[in-house]
Amino acid sequence: MPRPRKFNEDDVLIKARCTFTETGYHGTSVDDLSQAMGLSKGSLYGAFGDKKALFQRVFDDYCAASERSVAALLDGPEDQALNRARAWLLSPESCTDRRGCLLAKGTAELAWENDAVAARSLATFETLLGSLRRLVEQAQRAGQVDPASDAGALGGLILTTHRGLEALAKAGVDSATRNRIATAVIDSITIHPVPV
Fold it and tell me: Full-prediction pTM beyond 0.70?
């Protein structure tokens, strides 16, 4: 009978995720993970397998959380859909976290060599695109976006803007500049009444 675990799995997985996000997959050793997670190597291997299996677990969890976060944008009145999109793109003025996104970093580092990461990344981005397409469709039904516009392409514009803004944040571009960009993107797809 296996011994009960003496650690909180969610807590140690968060520590592993932070370590992978900060130093990348190849830049992170098992010793680094063991120290960050507060586990012996034996406990780490026993609970999560090798480094590759641990990364895949953390990456899967992160992707699933990203999917849930964007799907939650669909909750609410249709006439507020663009406001929810804008809020998703905006960064708090106090945001100084430059570590970046594990989905973006893991994809860039590993998708070319790891089929599981490539497949999970593609599935995640397809899910995000689907959710954002539906968000734009809500705005179209509410009369805020031209109904003849390609909702999928506009959802893609919102997603690629989000990805780009994350890269700018990581580079240290200030939040006021990033927020002007976010606002400009949402304004560019919004129908504005013609002055009479």
Answer: yes
